[in-house]
Amino acid sequence: MKTIQLTLIALALLAASILWENTSVADDKPSGLAVSERVDFENDLIPIFTKFGCNGGACHGAAAGRAEFNLSLFGGNPQSDYTAIVRQLAGRRINLMHPEESLILLKPTAQTRHGGGQVLAEDGEGASLIEAWIRQGARYETLRQLERVEISPRKQVISDIATRVQLSANAHFSDGTTKDVTRWTVFTPEDTAAVEIDATTAIAKVLRRGRHIILARYLTEIVPIEFVVPLNESLPDSPIQKTEPETVSKPTQERSTASDSRTENLKIDAEISKLLSTLRLPVSPAADDATFLRRITLDLTGRLPTPAVVTTFLADTHPNKRETLVDTLLASNEFNEYWTLQLAKLLRIGAQERDTQGAFVYHQWLSEQIREGVGYDQMARSVILSTGDSHEVGPANFYRTVNGPREQTEFMSELFMGARLRCANCHNHPLDKWTQDDYHGLAAIFAKIEADQVVAVKPAGEVIHPATREKAVPRIPGTRFLAADVTDGRAELVEWLTGSDNPYFAKAIVNRLWKAMMGRGLVEPVDDFRSTNPATHPELLTQLADDFVAHGYDLRRTLKQIARSETYARTTNALPENRADDRFYSHALQKPLEPEVLADALSDVLGLPDMYGDEPEGTRAVSLFNPKTESIALDILGRCSRETSCESATEATDALQRKLHLFNGDLLNARIGVPGSRLDRLISNGNSPMAIVSAFYLAALSRYPTETEQQFWEQYININVTADSQRAILEDMVWSLLTCNEFVSNH
């Protein structure tokens, strides 16, 4: 009897095995069912799991899953999802004999205990589709491939904030069919406090004015939707042609309006004006000459203009003097020095432990590239293709910046593509097109580089793909696989990267140049380019990038284009109607000075050079090649160590520390009036108290005191006695200038 029972059990197991084997064959079609009646696992069921959050990061889509049930994030890997549902847990999630009793149905409908509660209605369409799929044999069947999703509207200007907008989604498949998938599309506002969406009806309601982005997700497609609600009921008169002094000092010279010198900037200003008009945002007036001089000198050279330059520029009546100034600054050694610092931060040039030689030659090489005007594409080629002794070949240090091929992948993609491939390490990028194949395929290219002091090709280098547990195949991200046995894929990588049609390379750097000049990137964060994080002004970004490529990837040209625009030259003084604008450039954004620039500015105004480690006296902070050079001032001011990206580092703690030291620390107090300082020399030379006040305004703020400021100081300074007898009040005057917001920013 026992033998018979065992035999029956064995036969049952064999039958079950045969049944499961049949269900795994996609070509084994259910008999008697038309194609339109068959449930497609990938195209019909995955959207259900996404719609109701089952495969989200907070549920079973988490890296470790939930309750021993792991789905791929947002359905990025349908094959593994099928295995998890049908094969795992001894097949208990599917009941072919009684489909309605399958755990994959009972749990989300809360008919049995489910940690996530009820997410599917028992009689709803989602549950019905899942049950129908099980009744049809729970096969992995993909009847058609998704080609694209059309979302409507993609962009809409909403005049009345009370307006409700119906969103819709239509999927287009490889078999020529089109399907309304609105009910299975997830519409997610970037800011839930700005836009409210009814998950059932897909009707959007805007809660406040401005530009808002909504992400529409269906299967692997993610499409951004843009709503624009004007910030004002009507567009006030805009004083575009006026020049408003940010300070009332010596008579302000007439601003240059020579049309021939601004022709190339009309595209910049036109694109900015187009969106401002849509938003009904008026523009603030143009900044006066003193403000423009200080701003452009800091932005292009990282230095304050000297008092002599200030007085000469303010007295100059030539209509093209601003354009001439820009050209002079771009051709200066100070520009070379400062923009070497900017690119050194991007490249994270820093000394290895107990080894500064590599960083020194890397910095020297970079400085030479800037000085010689080498195209940015050639710089990228040099560092990516570099080999040799890193103590002699500067670019070779690119491969000593981070540890390991995966870290090199993340560094390279953020630097040269403005894309965060790191999100595709463990799973396909949830908000972009990047896959694990892209991430580990690029890492496989870098794995063949030996990154010791001597950087060399290592043909045997490899990385393991976490999904396949096999060697990753080298791959150009988002494009193609290389031969599995390729010795060095960098040549193909760099040809793709620096090609004129690359959608990332040029845009990534011009966006950074725009941010350096304007205070905010057209795409923010600057290392997070993706379709779901669109630029505020996409046409402008494309124009800047195209111009950059067409003119040999010339950094100076793009900086010049921005510097000569009306948009750049606006005052920071906001109007009542544009005060809330922090991204559309209706007025200039005030930027804090970088630690190195502020340290040099303090030394220039005080007239006392600071000391940096063992560097010679007079060395400027912006010229240091090693970010770990000993300096109390730079530590206080919050310099970036470059061990990670300086673009994403938070400065909240450093900003507080900086303010405290500026207000009541030796950073200023120990240097203001000491022998040899600017104040001490002015007093010793017999200058009158008010002449000293004026001299410090010129040195620190690049302007003369306003009438109000003049009257203020005359109340506290006795103009009838010597300056020497009033050292204390004059030291307070200097301290007040060096701690004011106008000084510590590019105002």
Task: Summarize this entry quickly.
The chain is built from 26 helices and 19 strands. With 747 residues, the protein is an alpha+beta fold.
Describe the fold and architecture.
With 747 residues, the protein is of the alpha+beta class. Among the domains are: 134 residues, no CATH class; 84 residues, Immunoglobulin-like, CATH 2.60.40.1080; 124 residues, no CATH class; 75 residues, no CATH class; 62 residues, no CATH class. Helix content is 39%, strand content 10%. The chain has 26 helices and 19 strands. It has a 4-stranded mixed sheet with strand order 2-10-9-6. A 3-stranded antiparallel sheet has the order 1-4-5, with no helix packed on it. A 3-stranded antiparallel sheet has the order 3-8-7, with no helix packed on it. Strand 18 and strand 19 form a beta hairpin. Helix 7 packs parallel to helix 9 and helix 24 runs parallel beside helix 26. It is globular and about 105 Å long. About 7% of the residues have low confidence.
